[in-house]
């Protein structure tokens, strides 16, 4: 099979500690790289200037994780890439797995989603208990409401066929955007597979910001986004298995 024309995109906000190391690794496995700098104020922009072959789109102010992903989606579509790979820049994803995601994103697959819970890898981390619990709850609700069989609703390591991305109508700006994505994916009949990735949590504090740092508030927000997304998509009572 011919090599697919793909872009690797990294949504970034205040990642000065990681961006240089992560990009050095990504450049070994991807020729075309986009960083969406979502209004960083910590020196991330200065580090990005040392990577002249990396395309950077900067949001003048912080808009949110979902907004950064939507910018990456639009760029990949506009530039005519066949496949878009997204990878987070916090050290939790291993860039050497990018070719595996691209290879799995065949013409018969629209979305390849990483899962930290499909299998155990040597050296896997133990996730923060509240994050694991919320992931389990929301993943189960998505599966029940949409007829999916996901094991990890929130992994940011993915590959998408850009023709599939053209179909989506995404509006969520924040960390709940992946929930809206799954609703839209089912609405448009996208073909989804999961592949396993290691579970890596670094020994540093990570915050969602504001009220979302409270686990119960975050869960309530995610559920509200799910209900809103189902209503917008006309899928409030929908049930269909879309995982292939």
Task: Explain this structure.
- The protein has 244 residues and is an alpha/beta fold.
- The chain has one domain: Spore Coat Polysaccharide Biosynthesis Protein SpsA, Chain A, CATH 3.90.550.10.
- The protein has helices spanning 19-26, 44-48, 65-78, 98-104, 129-146, 162-165, 177-187, 215-233, and strands spanning 6-12, 33-37, 55-58, 83-86, 111-115, 158-161, 192-196.
- The chain has a seven-stranded mixed beta sheet with strand order 3-2-1-4-6-5-7, sandwiched between helices.
- Strand 2 (33-37), helix 2 (44-48) and strand 3 form a beta-alpha-beta unit.
- Helix 5 packs parallel to helix 8 and helix 7 (177-187) packs parallel to helix 8 (215-233).
- It is globular.
- The two termini are 21 Å apart.
- 40% of the residues are buried.
- The mean pLDDT is 91.
Secondary structure tally, helices: 8
Spatial shape: globular
Q: Uncertain regions: pLDDT < 50 for 5+ in a row?
A: none
- What is the top-level CATH class? Alpha Beta
Largest sheet at a glance?
7 strands, mixed
Using the coordinates shown, work out and report the CATH topology. Answer: Spore Coat Polysaccharide Biosynthesis Protein SpsA, Chain A
Strand order of the largest sheet: 3-2-1-4-6-5-7
């Amino acid at each position: 099979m011919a090599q697919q024309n793909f872009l690797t995109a990294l949504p970034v906000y205040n990642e000065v500690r990681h961006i240089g190391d992560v990009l050095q690794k990504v450049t070994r496995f991807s020729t075309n790289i986009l960083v969406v700098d979502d209004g960083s104020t910590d020196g991330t922009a200065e580090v990005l200037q040392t990577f002249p072959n990396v395309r950077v789109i900067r949001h003048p102010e912080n808009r949110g994780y979902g907004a950064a992903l939507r910018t990456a989606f639009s760029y990949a579509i506009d530039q005519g890439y066949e496949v878009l790979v997204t990878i987070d820049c916090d050290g939790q994803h291993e860039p050497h797995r990018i070719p595996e995601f691209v290879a799995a994103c065949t013409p018969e697959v629209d979305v390849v989603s990483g899962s930290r819970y499909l299998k155990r890898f040597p050296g896997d981390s133990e996730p923060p208990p509240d994050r694991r619990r919320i992931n389990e709850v929301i993943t189960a609700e998505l599966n029940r409401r949409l007829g999916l069989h996901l094991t990890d609703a929130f992994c940011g390591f993915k590959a998408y066929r850009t023709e599939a991305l053209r179909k989506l109508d995404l509006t969520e700006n924040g960390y709940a955007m992946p929930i809206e994505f799954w609703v839209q994916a089912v609405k448009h009949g996208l073909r989804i597979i999961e592949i396993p990735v290691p579970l890596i949590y670094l020994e540093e504090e990570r915050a969602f910001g504001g009220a979302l740092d409270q686990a119960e508030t975050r869960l309530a927000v995610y559920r509200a986004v799910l209900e809103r997304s189902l209503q917008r998509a006309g899928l409030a009572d929908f049930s269909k298995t879309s995982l292939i």
